[in-house]
User: Fold TetR/AcrR family transcriptional regulator from Chitinimonas arctica.
Amino acid sequence: MKSTKPPSDPAACCAVLDTVARWTRRKDARPGEILDAALDLFVARGFAATKVEDIARAAGVTAGTIYRYFANKEEILKAVIRESFAPALLEGEALLANFEGSAAELLTQVIRTWWQLNGATRLSGIPKLMIAESNNFPELARFHREEVIARGEALIGRALQYGIDRGEFRPQPVELAVKVVTAPVVMAMVWKHTDVCGNDGIDLDRYLDIVIETLIHGLGVRPGTNS
Amino acid sequence: MKSTKPPSDPAACCAVLDTVARWTRRKDARPGEILDAALDLFVARGFAATKVEDIARAAGVTAGTIYRYFANKEEILKAVIRESFAPALLEGEALLANFEGSAAELLTQVIRTWWQLNGATRLSGIPKLMIAESNNFPELARFHREEVIARGEALIGRALQYGIDRGEFRPQPVELAVKVVTAPVVMAMVWKHTDVCGNDGIDLDRYLDIVIETLIHGLGVRPGTNS
Amino acid sequence: MKSTKPPSDPAACCAVLDTVARWTRRKDARPGEILDAALDLFVARGFAATKVEDIARAAGVTAGTIYRYFANKEEILKAVIRESFAPALLEGEALLANFEGSAAELLTQVIRTWWQLNGATRLSGIPKLMIAESNNFPELARFHREEVIARGEALIGRALQYGIDRGEFRPQPVELAVKVVTAPVVMAMVWKHTDVCGNDGIDLDRYLDIVIETLIHGLGVRPGTNS
Amino acid sequence: MKSTKPPSDPAACCAVLDTVARWTRRKDARPGEILDAALDLFVARGFAATKVEDIARAAGVTAGTIYRYFANKEEILKAVIRESFAPALLEGEALLANFEGSAAELLTQVIRTWWQLNGATRLSGIPKLMIAESNNFPELARFHREEVIARGEALIGRALQYGIDRGEFRPQPVELAVKVVTAPVVMAMVWKHTDVCGNDGIDLDRYLDIVIETLIHGLGVRPGTNS
DNA sequence: AATGAATGAGACTTCATTCAT
DNA sequence: TATGAATGAAGTCTCATTCAT
Assistant:
C-alpha cells in the first residue's frame, strides 16, 4: 500500500537534477503538447497501434499524466480531430459565405484551400486513420462523421449547388456529386501517408491540378448536349 | 519479423492420398478455408482487431491448427492478399487486349468490369485493408504495389492513352490521369466497408455512373478550346 | 508483436523440467481449483484486495489462465457463491419439506444445519465479504440477494410460520422475525472471520446454544399472557 | 506501515492568531472537516473504493492538503474511527450508573439509547466499516476492541447481570449472552448501510421492537421450568 | 499553508503463440 | 494432424503520494 524506494539508490547522486526535471509543471502547455505528439503518432502508426505510453513519452510526460487531461485514448483522438479541423472548416465556410464569381473558381478555391490547410499538413493523416479504424471505434466514427465529414460535405455541396444554380454545372444529385469531388482529394491524402503503395513519386500538386480541371469540366454543362 | 515460408503447397504431397479417399480433401482445403475466413474478418474488423481464434472458429478449426499452416498472424494477412488479386486482373487485361471502339466506351467498360469483379464482391475490402496496414507490412506493400497496383494502373493507363491517341481525351500526363480515374473507384470500395462514415445510404451504382460521366467529359477534349 | 526470449537464458538448463511442469493440462480440474483458491483469498482479504494474480498463483496457474474460465474477477466471486451455497440450501429445504415435530426442534435443526454446513466451514467468510463489498458491486449484491439470501430467509420464514401455525410461537410479522433469527447467526460468521474484534475467545458453539434457546423462548407464546 | 503522528493538535500553536482573526478558524477546522467527509465516503463506499481526492473534494480542499494533516489514507480511517465513538459510550454509561427498576426496562433503555445515539445516526456506518477493514488494520482493530467494544459489552453485561441478580433473567454465562444481545443490533446497523442486500424495506424500528421483546422473554426465567 | 500537476507502481484484462496430448 | 489449455508479454487505466510553486 506504500511504495518507498530505498534511499540507497545508486542514482541518488543525480537526484536533485532528476527531481528538478521531473516535476516541472506545465499546466496549460500540456494538453497541446500531448495532442501534438498524439497526432504524429496516430498518423504514423494508426490508432490501435499507438500506445498511450508512446504518446506520453513523445510529449515528455508519463502515461499517468495523459489521463489527467483525457479520459481515455479515444478522447485523445477526438480532441486531436476537434482541434485540427476546426480552422480549416471555418476558413472554408468563410470563403463560401460571400463568394461572388464563377462556380469553377469557387470549386477550385475550396479544393485548394482544403488541400493547403489539411492535405499539405500533418492533418492529411487523419482520413487514413479514420478509414482504418472507424469500424472498430463507432463513437469515434460518429464524432468524425458529424463534426468533420458532414460539415465538409455541406461545404462542397453548397459550392456545387452554386454552380448548378448559375447554370455552370449540370443539374445532378448533389449529395452524390459531392462524393465525386471528395474522393480524389481524400485519396490524395491517403496516398501521402501510405509510403509504399506505388505513389512514392506522385506529384500531388499536379495531380490536384488535373483533378480540379477534370472535375470542373466533367461537372460542367456540355455545349451541344441538353442532358 | 520471423521468416517463414508461406504454406506454399501443402496439398501437393498429398495428391496421391486424395485420389484414394475423397473425403480427405478437407485437409487440403484447410488453408483455403482459413484464408477465406480471414479475409472476411480482416475486412470487417481490421488486422489488429481480428483474433486468431476468431479466424479459427470461422474456419471451423481451432487456433492451434492455424499455426500448422501459417507461421503467424502476419503471414495470414499476406496470404489473404496474395490470393485475392490474381483473378480480377487477368479479366481486365483480356478485355483491353483487342478492344475497338470509342475511348469513352472503353473507359466505361474497364471501370465497370473492375467494379463488378472487385468492387461488388468481398474483394472490395482489400484496398481498405491495404490502406490501413501497408505501412506496417512493407514487404506486403511492395508486393501489392508491384503485382496489383502496377498492373491495374497500366491497364487504366492504356485505356487513357488509347483515348488520347484517338483524339478523344486531352493530352495529359497519363500516370497522373490514371490516379484521377482510380481514386473515386477505390474510395467507393473503401466506403463500402466503412459502416459509419457518412456514406450509409450512398447508392454506389449511381455514384459510379456520375463518376464515369464526369471522368469522360472531364478528360475529354473540349470543343471550342484547343488546350 | 513477437516475444522471443534469447536461447542464452541462464535458466536454460532446467528448461525441460520447467516445460513439463508448466504445461500440465488439467482442464476439468481447473475451475474447481481456481474457485477453491479464490474462496480462501476472498475470505481472507476481501474482494477488492484480492488480486487475480494471487488467485492464479494459489491455484497453480497464471493469471491468463483464469480468464479462460471466468470472464472477470466478479464472475469468479459469483461462481464461488453459486457453488458454495447450493448444497446447504438444498439440505435445508429438504429438511423442511417433510418435518413433523415441534417448531422448537425444527428451528433448532435449521439453525444447526445452517451452522454446520456454512458457519463451521470456510463459507462462513462469504457473508462478511458481501457486507463489505456489496455496495460496490451491485450486480454481485443482486445475485447474492436473489440466489442466497432470499432462499435462506424463505426457509427460516417457513419454520417460523410452522411454529406460529402450531401455536408454539407468538403470531408475528414473519419477515421481521426472520431477521431476528438470522442476525445472530450471521454475526457469528462475521466474528469467525474478524480476527481482532474482541471475539478471539468466543466459544461460538456455546454462543449458538444460547442464541437458539433465547430465540425459542423469546419467540414462544408466554404462558399466562395472551398477547 | 509508515509511522505518523495523528494530527493531534495542530490548532494549539495557532491559538494566538485565532484571537486576532476569527476567520482563520477555518484552518483549525480542517482536520475535522476532512474526517467528516471521510466518514461519509468510507461508510458509503468502503475504504479501498474511496479515493483520497474524493475526500478532499468533499471536504472542500485538494488532495495535497489532506497530506498536511494525515500521513496517508490509513491514518485517515484510523482517525475517523477513533473520533467517532467516544460520545455514545459516555451517554450509555451514565444511564446505567444509577438505574433502579426492572431489568427488562433497563435492557430496553440501553438498547434504545444505543440505537438512538448510534444506530439512527451516521455513526451506524462504523461497525460495517470495522467489519470490512479490521483485518487489514490490526492496530485499529485492537483500538476498536479495547476502547469501544470492551466498554460497550461491559455496559450490556452489567445490565444482564443486574437482571440475573434480580432473578429476572436466567443465570447464564454473561459474556456470551452479551453477544446475543449485541448481534441483532449491530446487524441492524450493517443493514442500514447495505443498500442491496434484501433489506431495502425493513422497518428497523419495528425490527428492534421484536428484537427487544424476544430478548427479554428469551433471556427471562421461564415459569414452571427450573433450568 | 495550500495547491494541483505529475509520478509510478500496479491492477485487470487480452491475445498471439506454444506444446503436451 | 488437430486440439485447446496454458502461457506471458503487453496494453489501458487508476490512484496514493510527492513536491515545485
Q: What stands out?
A: Residues 1-3, 19-20, 22-25, 51-53, 63-64, 66-67, 72-73 of chain A lie near DNA strand F (CB under 10 Å from a C1'). The first helix of chain A runs from residue 15 to 22. Residues 22-69 of chain A form a domain with the Arc Repressor Mutant, subunit A fold (CATH 1.10.10.60). Chain A touches chain D through three residues (CB under 8 Å).
